[in-house]
Amino acid sequence: MTASRITYNVHAQQLLNHDVFMQHIERIQPTALFVMDALGLAREIKSALPKTMVIHRNWGVTGGDDAVFAKVSPQQWLDLRSAEAAGGIMLHTSCEPGWGQDVIDWHVKLMELAAPRGIPLVIGNWAVGTPQPDQWPMARRMLELLDQHRDLFVLGLHEYAAGVITSGLIGGAPDDPQHPNFVPVENWPDDVSKLTLFHCGRFRFLVNYCHSIGLRPPRIILSEHGFDDVSDIKPWLNGLRVNSPYLNIRGWKSLQDQWSDWYGGRGWSAQRAMFEQLAWADRTIYQNSPVEAQCIFCWGHTSKEWEQFDVAEAAEFHSLLEAYAQQQPAPSVQPVGQPAAPMTPIGFAPVGQPTSPIAPVGVAPVGEAAAVNSHPPAVEVSAASEQSASAPPKLLTISLTADEIAIINSGLRLMGKVTVDPTILKAFNTLADVLERSVSG
Fold first, then answer.
1. Over 70: is that where the pLDDT of 369 sits?
2. Which CA distances in Å does 129 have to 6, 66, 125, 233, 292?
3. Quick check: is 32 in a domain?
4. How far is 414 from 271, CA to CA, in rounded Å?
5. Per-residue confidence band for 63, with pLDDT thresholds at 50, 70 and 90
6. Which has more pLDDT, 61 or 297?
7. What is the pLDDT of residues 139-181, one digit of tens each?
8. pLDDT score of 380 more than 80
9. What angle do CA 297, 187, 226 make, to 5 degrees?
């Protein structure tokens, strides 16, 4: 089954060939897709690929989203953006906001407000290197909410390699003589479970913390992924051959000459070298982990600064990824906007039962594959179901407080405002009316 975890962060304002893009993503069937500043395109993709988690970033509505926590309150953010979630679109909250209690608390409050309204979020989207490994305990409440609402909330992280995909496997330069030279393909390891993974694979610091406190690791999307300048090996990067007209090593286009030196003897073009490196990371680092997708930065570019990252015209890369996607198993992705089934934390037994030893890495998949349909399929009605449908309905007896009913009604009325389906709108309003009468009566 076609299912690609390697996918894209799309700068939709510069989507120069819409048809090429749509045909490509339909071939790879990505588990997730990130769209910036194009709600219409996000909804078009969701309609065409209902199983894909479609994430929308609205950069401008809050005057930039890098420090959004300092610009608007969580309630104001929801007032500005909640309508975008109609149809199952996930909302990107912030971009590389830094790490601190104020950032964490803002996201916690946002999730607490969004959960009863059923608004799906991809939260945080922290930069590679953020936070430090020992700083995850600051976010315990945030991680608890990510676990409690797995049907709604996903953690966004950015993970980049620098120069070569194996950067950061162990501290220092990839070819440091104190450890194996990780630049040659024959030295790329098949097992990274005992390595540091300080660049790509950094999410494991979070996984290890979650295991240490008996919490399931969150669902994770790499909302940015690929190649960039990573400061801890800057001197090594400065010694690499930079492809003209670029002035330093950052995106994949700046690395074309250096990759030719390293991998040209294998018959690899720069696009083939990029594909092989990303595919190695997908197989070796991200498969069988809480990471559900790696969104390559970027398809299209909104400024000259991002041109060297752009893969929109990398036709050979597209073809290689399409072939690779055909080999992938069905993705282990929790549906968005549907109740999550109860799950036991990986490596932890239910309360009152002994736990079995766990390894700190090599995390099993979180959740099972399932589709999210923005347009439910037609259902054939059998004679038996018609008879059942005509029978008097049974009443569901539940106990709710007046405060709980008020909260539920608020959500129903809100969803009634954003839905475009008149049948769903009527159902929301009817249920809200019934609940209100139960309180007043």
1. no
2. 21, 16, 12, 12, 20
3. yes
4. 47
5. confident
6. 297
7. 999 999 999 999 999 999 999 999 999 999 998 999 999 999 9
8. no
9. 5
Q: Which of 325, 343, 359 is the last residue of a domain?
A: 325
Integer angstrom CA distances of residue 372 from 86, 115, 116, 197: 13, 18, 19, 33
Does residue 349 carry a pLDDT above 70?
no
**Distance, first Cα to last Cα, the chain:** 54
Tell me how long the chain is.
441
304 and 192 in a single domain? The answer is yes
Q: Which residues contact 395 (CB under 8 A, 6 or more apart)?
A: none
pLDDT interval class at 138 (50, 70, 90): very high
pLDDT of residue 192: 97
HSE toward the beta carbon, residue 225, CA cutoff 13 A: 33
| SS3 of the chain: helix, strand, coil, percent, to 5 | 40, 10, 45
Angle at 131 between CA 125 and CA 137, to 5 degrees: 110
The domain containing residue 91 runs over which residues?
6-325
Taking the model in full, what pTM does it have? 0.76
Reduced to 3 states (helix: H, G, I; strand: E, B; else coil), residue 132 is coil
Element at 221 (helix H, strand E): strand 220-227
Q: How many domains does the chain have?
A: 2
* Mean pLDDT computed over 55-63: 92
209 plus 301 within the same structural domain: yes
CA angle 75, 76, 78 (to 5 degrees): 65
Give the phi and the psi of residue 105 in degrees, each rounded to 5: -60, -35
Q: Name the phi and psi angles at 257, rounded to 5.
A: -65, -45
What the block records as the tokens of 77 is: 């953010």
In a domain, 14, yes or no: yes
